[in-house]
Amino acid sequence: MxxxxxxxxxxxxxxxxxxxxxxxEQDGLLQILHKEKRQVQLAKFLDSQSLLAEEAIKNGVQxxxxxxxxxxxxAKTRVKLVATHTLRVAKNRQVFIKAARxxxxxxxxxxxxxxxxxxxxxxIAHSQVLQSRNIVIDIGGGSTEVILGSEQKATHLASLxxxxxxxxxxxxxxxxxxxxxxxxxxxxxxxxxxxxGPVYFNQDWSLVLGSSGxxxxxxxxxxxxxxxxxxxxxxxxxxxxxxxxxxxxxxxLNLPSLDDKRLPLIAAGLAIMIGFFRRLNIQQLQVAKGALxxxxxxxxxxxxxxxxxxxxxxxxxxxxxxxxTAQARQVQDTALALFEQIxxxxxxxxxxxxxxxxxxxxxxxxxxxxxxxxxHGRYILDNADLPGFNQQQQQMLALxxxxxxxxxxxxxxxFGDNQQRLIFTRLLTILRLAVLLNLGRSPDKDYAVxxxxxxxxxxxxxxxxxxxxxxxxxxxxxxxxxKLAPLGVHLLL
Length: 493
What we know:
It comes from Shewanella maritima. One of its GO terms (molecular function) is exopolyphosphatase activity. This is Exopolyphosphatase. Keywords: Hydrolase. It is built from 17 helices and 14 strands. With 493 residues, it is of the alpha/beta class. The longest helix has 19 residues, at 418-436. The protein has a six-stranded mixed sheet with strand order 8-7-6-9-11-10, with helices on both faces. It has a five-stranded mixed sheet with strand order 3-2-1-4-5, sandwiched between helices. Strands 12-13-14 form a three-stranded mixed sheet. It is 44% helix and 17% strand. The protein folds into three domains: 7-111 and 294-301, Nucleotidyltransferase, domain 5, CATH 3.30.420; 129-288, 2-Layer Sandwich (Nucleotidyltransferase, domain 5), CATH 3.30.420; 309-492, Hypothetical protein af1432, CATH 1.10.3210.10.
């Protein structure tokens, strides 16, 4: 890493966990270098008089000392520390802040509930594509933020006094998980959600998101106990609640996907989530990619929103792996020209961006090994952090790149439903044809091709004479017929 690199460090001092994120800016995109989480549980040590115990102060300061070792030697570093609910309400927070400044000499910004909510939404908006009507819930250790937004802009912010650590102390402190305890916890959460303004209710949401650790933990727990889960739905929340009550105690839980330190908080977090679903009539929720720390990081780096987060991600990856942009652009131009001829008949109009991204990144693996660069490209995209892409979109992009040349690994083409597989198959067909038409890497070669599509047939025709030097291309196309046939695509030349 160059000594001239600008580094950005965000520390989120939450009521349950402290988070450290270190990044640098790479072509307008923040490249995460290191992430670390410590479960300090400040809220657990906040007494009824809102005083933070000496043990909590000691644990928090020690955590900050250790965090500082991760970035103290980095050049050109900008650092921001943000504290949330527990330090907002602690009457002796200045004692903690004074001790913390001795360990880590940077200001600590104790943010309001509304500012916390704004930063959460900002972190999500920089990490994934949002819709016209979004609602976000972030269940923290001491408070729960509920945010409404339209695309990249937060429109309504709320911070409620319910959190997984505080509710665990209040309702599940002995570790016992009973039906009555759940009833009281859900009732208390419902009372909090009922205080939200009218704009939060009776809405048809385009996207419902849950950010941070509680949503991730609930999602993982559902995957552990439900066969073929379809995400965080009200039905699955009730199934998880029934499982917890049946076990009766946190020591009896068998949830291998959860960290041991997260297990004691799962019942409290679940009760709050159920209250949210019931009061706001939510049907399904997705786990968000970003959170508070990402919001702090992007503001620290002064990276503004861009209209297309996905394109920013693709451009950054292309530059990072030194792809041949001229060749990628040529393949993209060919693919989109073919796409325009058949996108309506093949019902692909909404996937222009996916095909374009696959073209731009189809040779991303060449920097590792040219012989099997499609396989390396798939590995990179399968394992990279791709802001703007959800899990299914990332999987499809990786498979398109991994299957754009040579034999197709049919065993890898496992999709959630037949429609998704059909869309992938059709996009892959167009991509592979575009790559074949540009194997010579000649900017002067321009094949005039006419496509005509039906349900499972694709007619391919040159609209002008091609010379004898193009016979190799015809051989490639005939070979392609055989490779596409097992996918259910009948290529007519």
